[in-house]
Write a structure and sequence with these properties.
This protein is α+β, with helices and mostly antiparallel strands and about 140 residues long. The protein has a single domain, classed as OB fold (Dihydrolipoamide Acetyltransferase, E2P) (Beta Barrel). It is about 25% helix and about 25% strand. The protein has four helices and nine strands, in the order ββββββββααβαα. A four-stranded antiparallel beta sheet has the order 1-9-8-5, with no helix packed on it. A three-stranded antiparallel beta sheet has the order 2-6-7. It is globular and about 50 Å long. The N and C termini lie far apart (about 40 Å).
Amino acid sequence: RICVITLAEAHPLLQKGKTITSINYQISANCSRLQNKVSGKSKRGAQFLTELAPLCRISSSDGEEYTIYSCIRGRLIEVNENILNNPAILQEKPSTEGYIAVVLPKFEESKSITQGLLTRKQYEEVLLKRLNSSS
């Protein structure tokens, strides 16, 4: 029931020619995801995220900045500080060491969240339709 937030394979940052220059977990003047301090079994102190809560901002060498959103409601368990010092792992290993954050949804909501996820095949079909409609 734990959710690991990563970049989708089709994300522009994972396309050829993009180089990540910086990752910033500072969301606003008063909110930094790095300030998240979680303790105990009930995960006290964890920041609560909504689906539209920004997790971080990623800048690329072409001047583009991408805001990565949580996409699920839940408690922020941890952010991956390793990508701050080595942003290349976000592109080299996006679904393992290059994860962005770990979120724990409410127990009651976790079943509906997983039921709403796409299978690998459904995801590939969505990408194919998107590609066909843009060409």
